[in-house]
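Milestone 3.1: sequence recovery, worked example.
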């Protein structure tokens, strides 16, 4: 169930084992309901609702703000952690030099997470990854 008044909605990949652990921890700490969650792997999820496509939501984490703006990358984690009372953990990611390191580390993770979790085919859809029928 989605909280009535949230500060950020995280669009997360519920099929990603690493991501699922992080989301489970955030959900446990979300006692005030400041963070909402939407699973991009759930049947019926439509990324177009947020002006995104499947490749975009699978390629990096996105968050939706109450006014409908979509944010991505480390800013999602900064806001989510702040929402559950753990903002201090990511405070260094706002510092100029450290922020670039955190952002780069997340980019490396985002680019490799499907391979690292054995889910490289997760971006496939029937249209894009199907083997074409070349029989006459």
């Amino acid at each position: 169930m989605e909280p009535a008044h949230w500060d950020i909605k995280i669009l997360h990949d519920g099929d990603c084992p690493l991501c699922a652990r992080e989301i489970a921890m955030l959900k446990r700490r979300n006692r005030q309901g400041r963070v909402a969650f939407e699973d991009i792997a759930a049947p019926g999820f439509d990324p177009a609702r947020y002006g995104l496509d499947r490749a975009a939501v699978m390629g990096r984490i996105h968050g939706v703000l109450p006014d409908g703006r979509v944010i991505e990358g480390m800013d999602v984690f900064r806001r989510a952690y702040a929402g559950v009372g753990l903002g201090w953990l990511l405070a260094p990611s706002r510092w100029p030099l450290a922020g670039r390191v955190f952002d780069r580390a997340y980019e490396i993770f985002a680019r490799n997470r499907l391979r690292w979790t054995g889910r490289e085919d997760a971006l496939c859809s029937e249209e894009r990854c199907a083997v074409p029928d070349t029989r006459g």
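Residues 129 and 135 are 18 Å apart (CA to CA). Confidence is low (pLDDT under 50) at residues 125-136.
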